Amino acid sequence: MEHKFKLWDAEVTIKPKLDMKYLYIEITSRCNLKCKMCFKQYWEDEEGDMDWDLFLKTLDDAEEFPKLEMILFGGIGEPTVHPQFIKMVREVKRRGFALGISTNGTLLTDEVLEELVRLGVELIYFSMDTVPNVSGAITLGHLAAALTAEKIRKLVGLKKKHRTGKPSIGVEVVVTKENYTQLSKIARYLRDIGADTLLLSNLIPMAEEQINDIVYDGSVNMEYYVQELEKMAHYGLYVKIPYFELKSERRCEFDENNAAVIRWDGEVAPCYRFLHTYYEYIFGRKKKVNAYSFGNVREERLSDIWRSRRYTWFRFIMKNYAYPSCTDCSLRDSCDFVTTSDVDCWGNEPSCADCLWGRRLIFCPIPQHMYGKFF
């Protein structure tokens, strides 16, 4: 199979491969919390759970990818609210896949934690807005953070009990003006309770009242706080730090790591950004991001969707960054293309030209950097 394309005056021939490395499965779009900075509070989509037959079909399709390194229960929902969560975990591990889970942790019982360790789940990322005894809570705050921290402590104890290094434990913290001065304290706290990794990400405002909460618009000098975080590398905690200012460099971790995301209803998106429909604010400028799918695994094989002409061309353009940059374009305040993510001024569909993930301001749990250290 090969696809031929025209790129300016050149002819491009691409022979798509089954080279997907990470497959995110949004087994549910529901959540038990209502964090104010989360996409869920602002999107236009209905909520739902992936049904068991579709889940099995997805795993069947995933087995066709010889380079697949990990399946991750992620997306925008909270995986543990799915009524068949632990059954799904067992099925993934029964088939021999490496498994990562992104969770707030609040619903993980002692019995479930024990089974996750016993099954050899490779990676668990906990999301926290703050941590206990550190000021600056920005959502449900210290109560939820204390509960999540207790789950981490129990997980660390279970790893010692079973004499295993799995799962690797990561924590994702969203940086805002309410907590940026506490980042080094947060890092030390997480190190002390046994976390392996701290993943920092910036806030994408979803509502007008959040616009001034960001720290990457030049309103905050983050140099001192970054230096303090970098010191933690000498004390056993891996810290992944985003940029805190807009740079010309673009690097999409979803593209670079050959990842795809399957929504709870089977739609296949290239990344988290296109998984749902919502409004975002890019440096104060309102933009509508519309969900975008390259196919549905309920109707097609994932391998056929991955190698389709449309998806193949999208990955080629994105990986070679052959698209414009709306974010720092001098015409952005008068251009119609910047109002939605549907298409850019070069004709690429959907448009990644305003994506803050690609500017490394926003991070999601991509486990590639953890290999070799924990696996």
TrEMBL record:
<dbReference type="GO" id="GO:0003824">
    <property type="term" value="F:catalytic activity"/>
</dbReference>
<keyword id="KW-0479">Metal-binding</keyword>
<protein>
    <submittedName>
        <fullName>Tungsten cofactor oxidoreductase radical SAM maturase</fullName>
    </submittedName>
</protein>
<feature type="domain" description="Radical SAM core">
    <location>
        <begin position="17"/>
        <end position="237"/>
    </location>
</feature>
<keyword id="KW-0408">Iron</keyword>
<dbReference type="InterPro" id="IPR013785">
    <property type="entry name" value="Aldolase_TIM"/>
</dbReference>
<keyword id="KW-0949">S-adenosyl-L-methionine</keyword>
<dbReference type="InterPro" id="IPR058240">
    <property type="entry name" value="rSAM_sf"/>
</dbReference>
<dbReference type="GO" id="GO:0046872">
    <property type="term" value="F:metal ion binding"/>
</dbReference>
<dbReference type="InterPro" id="IPR034391">
    <property type="entry name" value="AdoMet-like_SPASM_containing"/>
</dbReference>
<keyword id="KW-0411">Iron-sulfur</keyword>
<dbReference type="InterPro" id="IPR007197">
    <property type="entry name" value="rSAM"/>
</dbReference>
<dbReference type="InterPro" id="IPR023885">
    <property type="entry name" value="4Fe4S-binding_SPASM_dom"/>
</dbReference>
<dbReference type="InterPro" id="IPR006638">
    <property type="entry name" value="Elp3/MiaA/NifB-like_rSAM"/>
</dbReference>
<dbReference type="InterPro" id="IPR050377">
    <property type="entry name" value="Radical_SAM_PqqE_MftC-like"/>
</dbReference>
<dbReference type="GO" id="GO:0051539">
    <property type="term" value="F:4 iron, 4 sulfur cluster binding"/>
</dbReference>
<dbReference type="Pfam" id="PF04055">
    <property type="entry name" value="Radical_SAM"/>
</dbReference>
<dbReference type="InterPro" id="IPR027604">
    <property type="entry name" value="W_rSAM_matur"/>
</dbReference>
<dbReference type="InterPro" id="IPR017200">
    <property type="entry name" value="PqqE-like"/>
</dbReference>
<keyword id="KW-0004">4Fe-4S</keyword>
<dbReference type="Pfam" id="PF13186">
    <property type="entry name" value="SPASM"/>
</dbReference>
